[in-house]
Design a protein that fits this description.
This protein is of the alpha+beta class. Helices cover about 20% and strands about 30% of the residues. The strands form four sheets. Strands 3-4-5-8 form a four-stranded antiparallel beta sheet, with no helix packed on it. The longest helix has about 35 residues. It is globular.
Length: about 190
C-alpha cells in the first residue's frame, strides 16, 4: 500500500474509545434537551390563534403582532442656529424641552416662561387624551411656533401649539388677543390598515 493512502492512528485505542463515548453522550444530551423543549413549543403554539388563509396566495397569513407597550420615544427639531426643541415620551407621558445649541456640547434642557431647567409635562395640559395610552410623540417648528403631536394606541392623533419665541419654550402657547390659550386638539384618525 502506498504511503499516500495509509491511515495512521494519531490516538491510541483508549483515547479513540473515550472520544466515541463522549460523542454519544453529547448526542444523547442534545436529543433530551430538544425533547424537553418540544412540549413548551407545542403548548405555546396551541395557545396562538390559527393564521387565516389569504385568498391571494393560498398560504397562511400570519396574525398581526400584538401591541403590548408604547414608547419610549424622542424627537427634535432645530428651527434656527440658536435653539433646538425636543419631544420625549416616557411611560406614556409626553414632555417638551428646549436646548440652547450655540454651544453644541450643551446638554441642559429647559422649558417654561422662566426658562427653568427641566422638561414640561404635556399630559397636564387641557385636552390630553385619557382613553388610550400615548405611543409616540413628535415636534416640528415654524418660526417661533412649536407644534407637538402625539398618537394613541387607538390611532388618535392630537396636536398642541407651544410658543418658542425668544429664549423660552412655553407649553401651551398663551392666549394672544382673540386666540385662546392652546390645548390638545384631536386631528384626524389614521387611515385604517388593510
Amino acid at each position: 500500500m502506498s504511503p499516500k493512502f495509509r491511515r495512521t492512528a494519531l490516538l491510541g485505542p483508549l483515547a479513540q474509545d473515550s472520544i466515541r463515548k463522549t460523542g454519544m453522550l453529547v448526542s444523547l444530551a442534545v436529543v433530551m434537551a430538544a425533547g424537553a423543549a418540544i412540549p413548551a413549543v407545542a403548548t405555546e403554539r396551541s395557545a396562538t390563534p390559527r393564521a387565516a388563509v389569504s385568498p391571494g396566495n393560498g398560504g397562511p397569513k400570519p396574525p398581526p403582532p400584538p401591541v403590548t407597550a408604547c414608547g419610549p420615544a424622542v424627537d427634535s427639531t432645530q428651527p434656527n442656529g440658536n435653539e433646538q426643541y425636543l419631544a420625549a415620551l416616557n411611560e406614556g407621558v409626553p414632555f417638551a424641552g428646549r436646548r440652547d445649541v450655540t454651544n453644541p456640547e450643551n446638554t441642559l434642557i429647559t422649558s417654561g416662561p422662566a426658562n427653568a431647567p427641566g422638561w414640561t409635562d404635556l399630559s397636564l395640559i387641557s385636552g390630553f387624551p385619557v382613553d388610550s395610552p400615548v405611543c409616540d410623540v413628535s415636534v416640528d417648528a415654524n418660526g417661533s411656533d412649536a407644534f407637538y403631536k402625539i398618537i394613541t394606541l387607538d390611532g388618535d392623533v392630537y396636536t398642541l401649539h407651544c410658543d418658542g419665541g425668544g429664549q423660552t419654550l412655553v407649553c401651551p402657547a398663551p392666549a394672544q388677543g382673540q386666540i385662546p390659550q392652546s390645548r390638545w386638539r384631536e386631528v384626524t384618525d389614521l387611515p385604517n390598515s388593510p
